[in-house]
Amino acid sequence: MEAEARSRLLLEPLGRPFDAFSLDEKLKLNLKRIGLKRTTIFQDFCLPHILAEDEELLVEAPRGSGKATAYLLGSLQYLLRHEGRALILTPQEKRARSLAQEAETLAEDTGISTLFFGGSKEELSFQMKELEKGARLIISTPRWLTKIFKWRLLDPSSIRLLVVDEPEAMLKELSIVEGLRPQKIMVFLNQVSYEAVSWAYRLLQRPFELFWGRRPRRPGELRFRLYHVSQKEKFALLLELLKEMGRRRVIIFTANELVAKALSGDLKRHGFLTLCLLPESQPRQRLELIRRFNSQRAAILVTTDESVPYLDLLKTRCLINYDLPATADEFLLRIGSLPSGAQVINLCDETGAFSLEEIEKALGEKMTVVWARPKREARRQTRASSTSPRRQGHWDSRSLSP
Q1: pLDDT by residue (tens digit) across 88-104?
Q2: Could you say which architecture CATH assigns to the domain 2-211?
Q3: For the domain bounded by 219-400, which CATH number is listed?
Q4: What's residue 213's pLDDT?
Q5: How far apart are CA 326 and CA 144, in angstroms?
Q6: DSSP secondary structure code for residue 371 in this structure
Q7: Domain 2-211 shares a fold with domain 219-400
Q8: Is the separation of the CB atoms in 291 and 194 below 8 Å?
Q9: Which of 221, 282, 285, 289 is nearest to 251 (CA)?
Q10: pLDDT per residue over 279-299, tens digit each?
């Protein structure tokens, strides 16, 4: 356990000391005992929300980020303040057993009994007795939880805290928890998917959402196009691009909500099937917009940087930066979930020019500049494109094909 803790500290960047958080002194002492003195960056950001009394969580974070230690600490802290039990569900018995071992170490001298339920027949006799004695932190799998309820070893109403770890790997088995009514629910995804998020929102009302550890695509895996265009001419250019692309699903990023709403309305008036995904959208409304976008052969989704966490749920091979973001980090987050070979079209106006150099430096390459042409010339060259070769630096709709 100590060796594992030290290796994790070497792999993860460090945040604040655990002493900076509102953890029970016994938990802090146990952390020091196993060599954990400072949080990972993920734990630093997420622990305040995990420890909050009345906050639900929906979190995407990969293994190795420190999420397991974070929600184990949150579960133990909750049980130190409240009566009742906490239940942690995970898809694999091996992982459940490992979590239970870590929980037992963290719970030392707190008076909280922890229990892994599952495994061999020889183990079940002991585990059933521990449940009857009142084990308060129970870690298991959906298959074993079904048996626990069937054998009436646990009163469902006694579960005050529910943690679901990696639900995307056990969606077909999770109906067992949908009838529970805990006071606090935390859902931790290893990899976000529409089905998993949709399931989570059947349990959660208005959770704190955190999507962690998304790694942007390498620039070589995407195709970049850059247009230098004035603010006044940008919308006209966008219309021409969308018409040349034909029937495709396209995501368009804008600088803020006001621009997104206005652009969405303008595109609708020009006959484009347009959806608008904004931060103010309710969770279920947001999922419905994503479902509608993915189900259409041709649709446009206008959005802002606040919607970046949901890009993994959207099926598209074309992204348009109607407004270039202010920083390279924001640009990399926008493109982070695109599939290999996807097209990224950038409209650089007077404001976007200020961040262009930083963005291209982060990409490690200059984007291909495509010069916008007058509409009449564009039509004439489009007619000739079937018999004449492509000209360097000129727009060609064939460059947009998947």
Answers
A1: 999 999 999 999 999 99
A2: 3-Layer(aba) Sandwich (3.40)
A3: 3.40.50.300
A4: 64
A5: 50
A6: B
A7: yes
A8: yes
A9: 289
A10: 778 778 888 899 999 998 779
